[in-house]
What we know:
Elements: H1 5-9, H2 27-75, E1 77-79, E2 85-87, E3 103-109, E4 112-116, E5 138-145, E6 148-157, E7 166-173, H3 175-226, H4 241-284, H5 289-320, E8 325-326, H6 327-341, E9 347-352, E10 357-358, H7 362-379, E11 383-391, E12 394-401, H8 431-441, E13 445-450, E14 457-464
Parallel strand pairs: 9-11
Antiparallel strand pairs: 1-2, 3-4, 3-7, 5-6, 6-7, 8-10, 11-12, 12-14, 13-14
Helix pairs in contact: 2-3, 4-5, 5-8, 6-7, 7-8
Amino acid sequence: MATDPVAAAVPAAPAVPALEPGPGRSLRFRMILIAAAWITALLAIGGIALDRVLDETLTASFDEQLANNLNAMINAAELDEAGDVRLLRPLGDQRFSEPYSGLYWQVSGGGHLPFPSRSLWDRQLRPPPVGTSCVAPCRYESREFAGESLRVIARSVRLPGAAQPFLFQVAQSSRDLDRQRIRTRSILFWSLSVLGLGLIAMAGLQSTYGLAPLRRVSDAIAAIRSGRARRVEAQFPQEIEPLVAELNELLAESEAQSEAARRHAGNLAHALKTPMSVLVGEARGRDDPLARAVEAQVQVMRRHVDHQLARARAAGRRTATTARTPVWPVVEAIARTVGRIHQDRVLIDIDGDRDVAFRGERQDLEEMVGNIVDNAAVHGGGRVFVTIRPAGERVELIVEDDGRGIPEAQRSRLFARGERLDTDKPGTGLGLAIVKDVAELYGGSVALADSEDLGGLMVTLSLPAAA
Length: 467
């Protein structure tokens, strides 16, 4: 199979798979997620450490109060005539005098009965766990009273005149300590939670503001694709400027390559047309079968050269285009031209949206629409109906005629180069082939169907719409 030199000069753009947007593809989402994970981990570690420090502080403060009461009790203790311990003055806290108040003291040992505070009432404090030396103050937890956990501090002291040491104990219910712990932890949790949410919100704002230039680059690229701009002209932070400069250089290089391809195609077409014109001239000067065959084949070659030249021009323009072409005026102009060519024997009606625009060159749109409308006029019965309508990010042109139509099995043949189903009518057989090639170069498509309104053929041309 021979290689098409013009098609080779303008390679088709590779298809880019469409990626559906999602959280995992968002740079902003990733930055916020990383910041949230890091902030949460640090606050959790800091919260645990701070909770331990506060718990130790509360426990130390609680024990210090018990120790103060223990020291006051020891300082106020003395032996009476019977050798029992008595307090010279009552301790300052009123709860020692209230039964089951949660604050207790007791003196035991020395071979005497325990001497308890009134708050103990009919209960007694147990001695420290076996093996615990309380020569220096010792602290321990006790659950000897049902439903009440005690924090106890004890010390073994030999009073003046005593034969044996006495055990001084001060105990307090740990309910107050537990309430302080719960309250402190609640304040700590909500404080760190608010702090964490604030830091995550700040990270979100920072990411949004920091990535705003990239969104502006994306908007600028969209403007270039829609034909509203040719370059990225806005000012960007210095970190983004190299990317913008490279993008503009890439656009300039793409335009230069497209121009070179079009020039190459034009030179090739010009180089081929001159020898072909000479061959046609020589063949027309002779009246023999060989000359007629040469002339016919040269005409076929010329049609193919024109076809490929139009395709190359369209490919080059599509690669570098930033054009925006209103569709309605082009269709109106073509309808008038085709009407004059057929001496008003064809009635062409136009309906639809007057404001839609094609994202491409006017010349290419004229070539596509002109071929379709002319085919409908030539092969129809005298009526052609053109509908222009938007379809999302595309614009559709629907051309219907009242001709005999084409069987579905034969429709695909119309897009083959030089293929003609009706040899009685004039034409080259390249019209729909050119339309298909140019439409696909713009990312569009051509479809054939039956016309429900006119009964003939319906051609739907779908092209990218300009913003």
